[in-house]
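@channel sequence for tomorrow's demo:
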Amino acid sequence: MAVSARSVSTAARALPAHEPGTSRPSETGPARPRLDVVERRRAAARSIRRRVRLLRRLGVMFVVGALAVTAAAHTFVASDQQRIDALQSQLTQALAAQQNLQLTRAELESPVRVLAIAERQLGMVSPASVTYLAPADPGPSVAQAEAAASRAALAAAAAKAAGARSAKSARTGSPFAKTQTRTSLAGPGSSAVTAPTG
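structure tokens (generated this afternoon):
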């Protein structure tokens, strides 16, 4: 009996204490898992903590990425600014060189320098007096010559027509038949002159 009492007391110690609201497991069926509210709360707290950690990690990664992008943009801007500064300095140097070349050109083209080179190196001398020549008459231009020729041809045609009229009137016995046609071919502007003869 003492042995059985000891075994019962050890079995009672091993079994969990009976809580109100839970049923005792049946002697014949399998043991049911014990449900605790505390374990659910701990699991919910763990999942919340995991989500918070994940959100923190995502936030840190986002901030680090934004900082990296900003740093890269600043690097590109700084390199472009350096290139612009270098080009600006080259432009300033080129403008200064252009101004120096223009000044040198003006000095080389100055009449005083040209005269000094002509007198010293080429042995030229200024004349004592200057004689101006009268311009020669080049004669009529091509357009004027063509106009004079056309006027002469018109005058000849008019003289021929006047001669034909006088010959016709002489044949018909007109009182105006006694006219004489004289044509002067002295110059390019000649014209037919008709004068009565009786």
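heads up for whoever presents: The CA atoms of residues 53 and 59 lie 10 Å apart.
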